[in-house]
């Protein structure tokens, strides 16, 4: 045991996205801007929903939770990535790496479950509108959100356990800009085939099953829309299109990355950037640009703030 402790890896070194100095500076500016906009956009949605009584409905309750998760999800990886653009040697301690891995999977899994719940919410609202207020009351919504966080925590604990149970005695070079299970277990000093299979059965299966459930829900919704009026069909299609766009943007990279942990491609880093950096920014844009109620609520909130400031002066 003593010999194991002496050779145990204490830190990991990231290769980052690129080793070109010019590209690193350009990436620093681009991703810094993206991160700030992500924080501002999602925080604006959360504040707008909290301070607008007419938005205190299940759909917007879930949307505010989605924005909160996106803030947390991007904050797990982006700050460390931005720091790496400024450093020649990009390192992270073993404990910090495991913590990053844990929270990455916690927020990613929570978002997967939340998007599935949001699809169910739209299914109930469109296919059984007379029972909607009974089926999706706020008590049920709170219970569903609690369940998704519990499920995300259990999933993340499993992923963390599978990673930390392996011995790490070198090498310590991670071909990425953040710690994730597939990239870290490759560095273990033992055969990781079984662990890789367990990852597929956990992360990959969750992503794939939830995505298939979502596709089924939206297919049923589209079929039922033909029975509704033109105006009702237009409004429902607008909402469902926004939801399904977010689902595709998030689930696509997750399924691509986590259903094949033993195989890596050169495009993996680009895909990872998309779902850890770009998607959290696109979510508020997609939902606000396609939702007139949210946009009007933001305008009213801004007008109220301006009126308060004028009165103070």
UniProtKB/TrEMBL annotation:
<dbReference type="InterPro" id="IPR000276">
    <property type="entry name" value="GPCR_Rhodpsn"/>
</dbReference>
<comment type="similarity">
    <text>Belongs to the G-protein coupled receptor 1 family.</text>
</comment>
<keyword id="KW-1133">Transmembrane helix</keyword>
<keyword id="KW-0297">G-protein coupled receptor</keyword>
<keyword id="KW-0812">Transmembrane</keyword>
<dbReference type="GO" id="GO:0004930">
    <property type="term" value="F:G protein-coupled receptor activity"/>
</dbReference>
<keyword id="KW-1003">Cell membrane</keyword>
<dbReference type="GO" id="GO:0005507">
    <property type="term" value="F:copper ion binding"/>
</dbReference>
<dbReference type="GO" id="GO:0004984">
    <property type="term" value="F:olfactory receptor activity"/>
</dbReference>
<protein>
    <recommendedName>
        <fullName>Olfactory receptor</fullName>
    </recommendedName>
</protein>
<keyword id="KW-0807">Transducer</keyword>
<dbReference type="GO" id="GO:0005886">
    <property type="term" value="C:plasma membrane"/>
</dbReference>
<dbReference type="Pfam" id="PF13853">
    <property type="entry name" value="7tm_4"/>
</dbReference>
<keyword id="KW-0472">Membrane</keyword>
<dbReference type="InterPro" id="IPR050427">
    <property type="entry name" value="Olfactory_Receptors"/>
</dbReference>
<feature type="domain" description="G-protein coupled receptors family 1 profile">
    <location>
        <begin position="41"/>
        <end position="287"/>
    </location>
</feature>
<keyword id="KW-0716">Sensory transduction</keyword>
<feature type="transmembrane region" description="Helical">
    <location>
        <begin position="270"/>
        <end position="289"/>
    </location>
</feature>
<feature type="transmembrane region" description="Helical">
    <location>
        <begin position="206"/>
        <end position="225"/>
    </location>
</feature>
<keyword id="KW-0552">Olfaction</keyword>
<feature type="transmembrane region" description="Helical">
    <location>
        <begin position="98"/>
        <end position="120"/>
    </location>
</feature>
<dbReference type="InterPro" id="IPR000725">
    <property type="entry name" value="Olfact_rcpt"/>
</dbReference>
<feature type="transmembrane region" description="Helical">
    <location>
        <begin position="140"/>
        <end position="158"/>
    </location>
</feature>
<dbReference type="GO" id="GO:0005549">
    <property type="term" value="F:odorant binding"/>
</dbReference>
<keyword id="KW-0675">Receptor</keyword>
<feature type="transmembrane region" description="Helical">
    <location>
        <begin position="237"/>
        <end position="258"/>
    </location>
</feature>
<dbReference type="InterPro" id="IPR017452">
    <property type="entry name" value="GPCR_Rhodpsn_7TM"/>
</dbReference>
<feature type="transmembrane region" description="Helical">
    <location>
        <begin position="25"/>
        <end position="52"/>
    </location>
</feature>
């Amino acid at each position: 045991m003593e010999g194991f402790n002496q050779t145990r890896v204490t830190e990991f070194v990231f290769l980052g996205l690129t080793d070109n100095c010019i590209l690193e500076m350009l990436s620093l500016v681009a991703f810094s801007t993206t991160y700030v906009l992500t924080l501002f956009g999602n925080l604006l949605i959360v504040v707008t929903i909290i301070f607008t009584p007419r938005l205190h409905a299940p759909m917007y309750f879930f949307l505010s939770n989605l924005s909160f998760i996106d803030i947390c999800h991007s904050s797990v990886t982006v700050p460390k990535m931005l720091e790496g653009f400024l450093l020649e040697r990009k390192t992270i301690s073993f404990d910090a790496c495991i913590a990053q891995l844990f929270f990455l999977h916690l927020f990613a899994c929570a978002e997967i479950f939340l998007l599935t719940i949001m699809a169910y919410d739209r299914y109930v609202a469109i296919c059984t509108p007379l029972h909607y207020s009974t089926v999706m009351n706020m008590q049920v919504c709170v219970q569903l959100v609690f369940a998704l966080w519990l499920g995300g925590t259990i999933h993340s604990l499993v992923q963390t356990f599978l990673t930390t149970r392996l011995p790490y005695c070198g090498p310590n070079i991670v071909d990425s800009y953040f710690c994730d299970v597939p990239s870290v277990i490759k560095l273990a000093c033992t055969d990781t085939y079984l662990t890789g299979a367990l990852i597929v059965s956990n992360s990959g299966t969750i992503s794939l099953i939830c995505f298939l459930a979502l596709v089924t829900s939206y297919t049923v919704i589209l079929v039922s829309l033909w029975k509704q009026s033109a105006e009702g069909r237009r409004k429902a299609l607008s909402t469902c299109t926004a939801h399904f766009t977010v689902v595709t943007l998030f689930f696509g990279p997750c399924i691509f990355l986590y259903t094949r942990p033993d195989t890596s491609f050169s495009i993996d880093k680009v895909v990872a950037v998309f779902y850890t950096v770009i998607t959290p920014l696109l979510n508020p844009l997609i939902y606000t640009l396609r939702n007139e109620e949210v946009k009007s609520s933001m305008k009213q909130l801004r007008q109220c703030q301006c009126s308060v400031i004028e009165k103070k002066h």
